[in-house]
Write a structure and sequence with these properties.
mainly beta
């Protein structure tokens, strides 16, 4: 899943022309499950399953504060575009926690009725998409009212886990990785209807959409591959071999995709224009 080791390596991807760099490994006191960056890119928020968020000053790689009592089984944190509010999923409860990131405390909770996994917001921050572990369903959230709008089934398997979610840069489409059946469900956000289901490989775990919106990359943890989806045709146009047990992927502004491989503790660097694997480096290596 999304779990990471207690020693967390944070990679900072700056917008051009500022160079990308690794700030190093930061020892943390509790089990870390996920991380998020604020929109300005100065602060990182590391989520701990025990119900705490560490606030990290990225230029100095120092933990400068903690947000306490955000709920046990804390997992995926999504921030609004202004960085003032965070929405936090939990793998062991039926609530999403809404966090005031300025005051650094819990603002409220949203009852969602089932254990959760990944959570992503639309680029305007008005909507959210929440995968439910072990139920094959996806909740659509209204952040203005902190309420569930509707619940959609993304998998034919009633106990599937939609573990990875990505929203296109335009906010028009949502891509959901259904781990159990090896598919990606595509959802349009205007009417929140499913437009396509795409077969990938074994154990799809994470999805990311390229900055131009033309490609979606899917990490297949059970196949040690990345499936490349053409978002216009909904076709898998390439399959790229990476490291062992790839669990997450992110695009950079300079045309690369970074794939974190949990099994081999490496990062695969892919040239997006050619689909070629440039190199594979250890997590503490120079990207």
């Amino acid at each position: 899943g999304l779990a990471m080791a207690v020693l967390v390596t944070i990679l900072v991807i700056r917008h051009a022309p500022v160079a990308q760099y690794a700030v190093g490994s930061i020892p943390l006191p509790r089990n870390a499950t996920n991380a998020a960056l604020d929109p300005q890119g100065r602060l990182g928020y590391v989520v701990h399953s025990g119900g705490v968020i560490s606030v990290v000053d990225l230029p100095t790689a120092k933990v400068v504060d903690t947000i306490e009592d955000v709920g046990g089984g804390a997992l995926a944190l999504a921030l609004t575009p202004d960085g003032r509010t965070g929405y936090l999923s939990h793998y062991a409860s039926g609530q999403v926690t809404v966090v005031d990131m300025v005051a650094r405390k819990v603002a409220t909770t949203i009852e969602v009725g089932a254990t959760q996994w990944d959570l992503k917001l639309t680029p305007d921050g008005r909507g959210g998409y929440l995968g439910h572990r072990g139920s094959g369903t996806l909740s659509v959230l209204d952040t203005a009212h902190n309420a569930v709008v509707t619940v959609l089934r993304t998998s034919d398997d009633p106990i599937d886990s939609p573990v990875g979610i990505a929203v296109s840069p335009s906010g028009e489409f949502v891509y959901v990785a259904n781990r159990g059946v090896g598919t990606v469900t595509v959802l349009e956000t205007v009417h929140n209807t499913i437009v396509r289901t795409i077969a990938v490989q074994v154990g799809p775990n994470a999805v990311a959409v390229s900055p131009d919106g033309l490609l979606a990359y899917v990490t297949n943890e059970g196949s040690n591959t990345v499936s490349v989806i053409d978002t216009a045709s909904y076709e898998v146009t390439a399959t790229i071999g990476v490291g062992s047990a790839p669990i997450t992927v992110a695009f950079t502004d300079d045309g690369r995709a970074l794939v974190v491989n949990r099994g081999s503790t490496t990062v695969s660097v892919i040239d997006v224009a050619t689909g070629a694997l440039r190199r594979t480096v250890p997590l503490d290596g120079d990207l």
